[in-house]
Amino acid sequence: MLTIALVLWGSYSLKQLPIDAVPDITNNQVQIITVSPTLAAPEVERLVTFPVEQTMATIPEIVEMRSISRFGLSVVTVVFEEDTDIYWARQQVNERLNQAQDQIPVGMGSPEIGPLSTGLSEIYQYVLRAKPGFEAKYDAMELRTIQDWIVRRQLIGTPGIADISSFGGYVKQYEIAIDPVKLRGMNISISQVFEALEKNNQNTGGAYIERKPNTYFIRSEGLVNNLEDIRAIVVKNTSNGLPVLMQDVGTIQFGSAARYGALTYNNIGEAVGGVVLMLKGANSSQVIGNVKDRIEQIRKTLPEGVEIEAFLDRTRLVNNAIETVVKNLAEGALIVVFVLVMLLGNFRAGLVVASVIPLAMLFAVAMMNLFGVSGNLMSLGALDFGLIVDGAVIIVEATMHHLGINTMARKLSQREMDEEVQQSASSMMRSAAFGQIIILIVYLPILSLTGIEGKMFKPMAQTVSFAILGALILSVTYVPMISALVLSKTTGHKANFSDRIISFFKRVYQPVIESALKHKVITVAVSVIMLIGSFLIFLRLGGEFIPTLDEGDFAVETRLITGSSLSESIEVNLKTADVLIKNFPEVETVIGKIGTSEIPTDPMSIEVTDLIITLKEKDEWVTASTREELADKMLAKLEAALPGVMYGFQQPIQLRTNELMTGAKQDVVLKIFGEDLDLLARYGEQVGKLAREVEGAEDVFVEPIGGLPQIVVKWNRQRLAQFGLSIDEVNRVLRAGFAGEVAGLVFENEKRFELVVRLANQNRQNINDVKNLFVTTASGLQVPLDQLAEINLTIGANQIQRDDAKRRIVVGFNVRGRDVESIVNELDEEISAKLKFEPGYYITYGGSFKNLEEAEQRLSIAVPIALILIFLMLYFTFHSLRHSLLIFTAIPLSAIGGVVALWLRDMPFSISAGVGFIALFGVAVLNGIVLIAEFNKLQKLGKESLHQLVMKGTQTRLRPVLMTALVASLGFLPMALSQGSGAEVQRPLATVVIGGLITATLLTLVVLPVLYTLFEKRTQSTEL
To answer: How confident is the model at residue 584 (pLDDT cuts 50, 70, 90)?
Structure first.
């Protein structure tokens, strides 16, 4: 009944299990976004960012605070401790926003909390474009209006969506494009234009008139509805009573807001798109399904000639990753079942053990649902059914052995069978249970990981622990019960193919163990030499946090010279797309996301582009066979075709996650801290130059702090006083003239658009237009700005970044063809030898190297604790210090093969490989327990000498030792050889386990018996 209940519970949980490609490793953060369209970077830092940082600094449980101040935008990222409730954190931030707003000057921006999303939240990105033949009807402004008022409005209510960020196009405005010549000629000030617009764009009412039997409500309609209404607004009356209309002072037309971003589609031109941001913690598979259903509904409501096309859909990555996991698990399960049947020599016994696999899996899935662990590459990818069934193997093999040693063949009754199974199973149940518990203990260090590494690997440890716990419960309950029911009740044993296989192994093993027992010192010495050799190899392996997951697409960070225009960025993007599409058949689409989107969670300047290159399936590739090779060839082709443009090849999730975690998009980030921006820029260039000389450091990026061309207007206070003008008055004229000032709203049914006053486009082209902008004094005098201020073209700050209120510059690079640890160590030596920082200036390392360091530091504490726990478990099992030490030797001996396997496959040490070592130790200890338990059992009988005892014990337990090692290692074989999506993360883990179990099994069967005879002989002689 319990088994049936487990099947029902597990099946239900399987349908409810959230599915994703990888765990969401974004730290616990809240972003505060302030848009200040008219402020330069130093003013944004001083007037906006600093007040926000100061008010947020008093919130408890903050880990770090980062900020970026650039022209027109401030983004402050507050990172909280991992166990902090995100809704509580957002509430704390929200409560302090009013304080921050009070410290920010009026009109300089209103800080707002960013959407509740993470680095994995950009689950669906799409593009809106006109179908062939409709390009003239739907320009970029019309497409953006459709995106904002049709597509976004319908998507925003989708369950699991945090927000939709619109990208590209022109945001429609009703624009009064003022002609300064006409203003001066009619002696009209910009303030009068604003006043006229505000007074002539309003509705009101007059309550109601009661006239029995009815009531008549009174309302006026004075809102402008179209361009003609605006043209007819009276600005003022001339001295002879003639009205001056709005159309007399400028052109009334449709305009657009100042653009800080754009979106390009292939090599065709501009388009409009949207990024769907998933709510933090939502089920991505379910949310994507909801979004796709809603998109299908939206397609029916789009105007004729407009189409919506997804260019980045997480479903593909999720499906590919899960397909890889399922394929590896299925192949592993089949291999395990085959090995079990072959070595047990009994089809029924093989099926009994194999039946534990789906039942333990269902138990694990049910527990995953209970503890909120999603199904993904990391949580499911480390499952090895060989590990899971080890306990069941021991018990079933013991039962088969017990029934087989009875020489008299007879048919047992069910009651007798129950007793036989109980007797045989109980003799090995302790070893099996303790072996499984020890495997559980070795996963404790992974559960101790925190931060990013904890989010990445905890789900793996939890899932494996759930599966092993389920297998342990099944081994002591279900396995004996089903064995009594299913196994043949006829005692005695007939030779079969399994016996012939084991006989072969025994014939090979016999001379090896005899030779080892004759040459004990040499055997131990050789194993020690091998251990030392593997340690030396390990020191040369290098290290990385985790292997890079192949997402199937590229995200290329494209940079032009600081200060490049938006039109220049668009042109370069289209040329880049043209080069890629014409030279690489693997490319499906090239989408350029230039600058900042509507929700600026990714604050890029207009000379920076995230180029999303969607690729065909790998079996259709012709130019290259690997992602790294394709990236190198693309980079070489682009650099030859477009010199001066910087390209950094990464992947969409990798790029976004890097940015949210460290504030930079590269794999490794060096942060140089200090106060003077010029000095920081100089140090950044020097460090960048050294980084470019290090092999494996690719796409080196030095953050451009300065280099932004600016027209600086420095007011002359004496001249302002002379004309009776205030700073506020002249700033408003400047702001309205060039940035545009909102004077109200125009409604088109439910749509609303800003009514904006600004200079006509031809009067906003160069520095002379700024100098010749006139300000009207109270006496009606027209004064040009160059008489009120010193106006110069200078080079100013592009952006200013701070960590914990300290200014810093970033030098970043991506890693290709080499491990992270050796690159950083080499670079650090170069910096220490060749650079000397001024007092107060220092450098730190971040990104994947920092994650690796933190994980290694925590594991350096947690692993020894776990090893001590294993030793204590062994002591409680055998009540013998020497036997516990004997079994404990299996751990370092097993590590030999794991290290050599990594070295042979040219893989650096990573946390994935570290998890493999942890799993390996558990199996190695389990085999040691099985062997030593048999030796002790025979020793209690006291009928043989020590040599005979060891020979007999190894012969008896050869089958279970081989079986546990083979099923555990071969269960990982598909994972080690897999080339599917996501296999990069699993491969080091599987490689370590397979390589380690080869040496662990050999050394356990050879070295452990030798050490046992040495220990026991010394003990016996001491007792004598």
So the answer is: very high
599, 277 contact by CB (below 8 A) = yes
Do residues 204 and 220 lie in contact, with contact meaning Cβ atoms separated by under 8 Å? yes
Place of tokens 């006043």: 195
Structure tokens at 174: 């009703």
Handedness of CA 813, 814, 817, 823 (dihedral sign): positive
What's the rounded Cα separation, in Å, for the pair 553 and 301? 31
Confidence at 401, pLDDT banded by 50, 70, 90: low
Residues 6 or more apart whose CB falls under 8 angstroms from that of 380 comprise 322, 325, 329, 463
Task: Give the separation between CA 621 and CA 827, rounded to whole angstroms.
Answer: 35
Query: 715: closest CA among 723, 727, 724?
Result: 727
Cβ neighbour number for residue 864 with a 10 Å cutoff: 11
How many degrees, rounded to 5, is the angle at CA 858 between CA 811 and CA 919? 115
Q: Which amino acid is at 1017?
A: K
Neighbours of 75 (CB within 10 A): 26
Contact 473, 363 (CB under 8 A): yes
Alpha-carbon distance of 478 to 353, in angstroms, equals: 10
State the greatest distance between any 2 C-alpha atoms of the chain, in Å, as a whole number: 133
Tokens of 611: 């180029």
What pLDDT score was predicted for residue 412? 64
Average pLDDT score over residue span 164-173 = 90
Is residue 659 pLDDT above 80, yes or no?
Answer: no
Rounded to 5 degrees, φ, ψ at 291 are -65, -45
* DSSP H or E stretch at residue 608: strand 608-615
b/e burial code for range 549-560 (CB count within 10 A of at least 16 → b): bbbbbbbbbbbb
Tokens representing residue 286 in the block: 């379910």
Lowest mean pLDDT among 341-345, 733-737, 877-881, 979-983: 979-983
- Reported residue count of the chain is 1024
- Distance in angstroms (rounded) separating the CA atoms of residues 1020 and 597: 79
| Amino acid in the structure at residue 760 | A
Question: DSSP label at 763?
Answer: G
User: Coil, strand or helix: which one is 395?
Assistant: helix
Question: DSSP characters for 207-257?
Answer: EEEEETTEEEEEEE--S--SHHHHHT-EEEE-TTS-EEEHHHHEEEEEEEP
Is residue 730 within 8 A of residue 715, CB to CB? The reply is: yes
Kindly state the average pLDDT of the residues 113-136. 85
- Residue 189's closest CA among 723, 686, 683? 723
Q: How far apart are CA 318 and CA 4, in angstroms?
A: 31
Residue pair 720/727 in contact (Cβ under 8 Å)? The answer is yes
| Interval 541-580: pLDDT, tens | 777 676 666 777 888 888 888 888 888 999 999 999 999 9
- How many whole angstroms separate alpha carbon 895 and alpha carbon 222? 82
903-918 pLDDT, tens digit per residue, is 888 888 777 787 778 7
The answer to whether 317 touches 21, Cβ cutoff 8 Å, is yes
Could you tell me the two tokens for 321?
């990753």
Q: What residue ranges in 619-666 does DSSP mark as E strands?
A: 646-650
* Contact call for residues 159 and 284 (beta carbons, < 8 A): no
Residues 370/16, Cβ–Cβ less than 8 Å: no
CB burial class (10 A; 0-12, 13-18, 19+) of residue 3?
Answer: middle
Burial tier of 742 (Cβ tally within 10 Å: 0-12, 13-18, 19+): middle
For residue 36, give the 3-state DSSP assignment. Answer: coil
Q: How far apart are the first and last CA of the chain?
A: 56
Q: How many CA atoms lie within 13 A of 155 on its CB side?
A: 32
Q: Which residues pair with 524 in a beta bridge?
A: none
Q: How far is CA 865 from the centre of its chain?
A: 30
